[in-house]
Amino acid sequence: MNARPKPGSKADRDALRHDMTAAGCTVTDIAVEIRARYRMRPREAWRHAHGWTLQEAADRITQASGQGPAEAVAADASLVGKWEKWPGPSSRRPSLPVLLAMADAYACRLEDLLDLDDRKALPEGDLRLLNRPEAPCEPQLPVLPVSATAPLEPTGSELVRLAADESATWAQWAEASNVGDIALEQLMADTCALAEDYLTSDPVPLFVRTRALRDRVFALLEGHQYPRQSSDLYVVAGYLCGLLAWMSSDLGQLRDADTQGRTAWLCAELAGHNELRAWVLSTRSKVAFWDGRLRDAISHARRGATYRPAGTVAVLLACQEADAWSLLGAEDESLGALARAEEAHSGISREDDIGGLFSCQPARQENYAAAVQLRIGRPTDALRAANHALTLLRAQPVRAYGTEAQIHISKAAAHLSTGEAEGALEALMPVLALPPDHRLEPVTRRLSELPTGTGRPPTTGRASIGLRAAIEEFCLDSAPRHLALSSGEGTA
């Protein structure tokens, strides 16, 4: 048995139109019923009475306007939608030529397209034209008489009064906003909560929540608000797209992460917000690093530093530059970048806007230092940095499982570099105990590189064999692999 269509849905409207047509109802009857049943504005009700999309209606309105003596109208889907919503928020007042073209396209009277709210919001001049009697020689025409479609230009005091009415109408539009300061504050708070929750929660549900909040912000930006409110919305949208970029990368979707990063950058540019610019470039550096584009990773990190951010992103950018240099085998550049990270840490002058994922606490900084020292052949310094990072992490109120796992991996790699497979296995026990949904791409990538990435032939002892088997099993049951399998991209 087929389910009944949702009330007000397209399927529901189509069924109503079909039933009324079969019962002998006219288009006027259908428009009246749709307007009453779904509480629609009159212009929208007439469009749905014909079963037209916004674009189909726009094409017919444009065509109709070119067949009469009135001013030509160039309509598109967006304009039709705004004309239908008027005089509500995010709308546009349809002029008399527009209403005449609509009436022709919908085969109705101009008066059928207006209700009391419309008439109250119309300029006085338009009302006077609208209230003129119809021409007696054309009683059946559904529009105003020809004399009303091409009125003489107003003069004298009427011209002055009409100009004032037009300015007042525009002022009403300019004064309206679809978002308030409290709502903006809540959106930023929700973004901060997502960035904080991501450190300790499963990535996929957090991705869904972040996407939903981003869509809400995008919808607000498509409406009308004060310029400063638009700027604040772009900042929130930029951070949310940055979060989605970081999450996409952690889930192994690097191409999608890059797309989110580009959109985040656009938002930062539109907002003119340097701190956001720096965080977006940090995110793009991270994506480039895991994509193997090391020179791009360095370029993004260096460019981010030019904005002289006051928060901890300055530390993270220097760490990311060191990370990329170390993978290229450039020891001096790596150590120089780590030194700049220390300088940036001592120069922090403000709290981070978002925090959580968009914050570089000392433990995160030491995590990068351990990985860099390891790659440039300093296992003792790497082990010291890893142990320090774990001490710092335990003192934090929120322990990021991704960062903690990478610290343990660096510690294990330091042990492996001296042939201590037993010590490596012990260091990796907290990592191997992670639930599958917490096994992010950076963790599985670094873990899978352990047996062959130490610069020494792998040992053949029982501990080494057990370590390799545990790593293989770990990587097969991970969040990126689950995501790929759920979309049919992997094999069982």
How do the strands and helices of this protein lay out in sequence?
Layout: H1 10-22, H2 27-38, H3 42-50, H4 54-65, H5 77-85, H6 96-106, H7 116-121, H8 124-130, H9 146-149, H10 156-175, H11 181-197, H12 203-221, H13 227-250, H14 254-271, H15 274-290, H16 294-305, H17 313-327, H18 331-346, H19 362-375, H20 379-394, H21 401-416, H22 421-432, H23 441-448, H24 462-476, H25 479-486
Helix pairs in contact: 1-2, 2-3, 4-5, 4-6, 11-12, 11-13, 12-13, 13-14, 13-15, 14-15, 15-16, 15-17, 16-17, 17-18, 17-19, 18-19, 19-20, 19-21, 20-21, 21-22, 21-23, 22-24, 23-24
Key attributes of the depicted protein:
mainly alpha, 0% strand
Question: What does this entry look like structurally?
Answer:
With 492 residues, the protein is mostly helical. 67% of the residues lie in helices and 0% in strands. It is built from 25 helices and no strands. It has helices at 10-22, 27-38, 42-50, 54-65, 77-85, 96-106, 116-121, 124-130, 146-149, 156-175, 181-197, 203-221, 227-250, 254-271, 274-290, 294-305, 313-327, 331-346, 362-375, 379-394, 401-416, 421-432, 441-448, 462-476, 479-486. Helix 16 runs antiparallel to helix 17. The chain is elongated, with a radius of gyration of 32 Å. The two termini are 36 Å apart.
What string gives the helices and strands in order? HHHHHHHHHHHHHHHHHHHHHHHHH
Largest sheet: none
What value does the Rg take, in angstroms? Answer: 32 Å
Give the low-confidence spans. Answer: 134-151, 452-460, 488-492
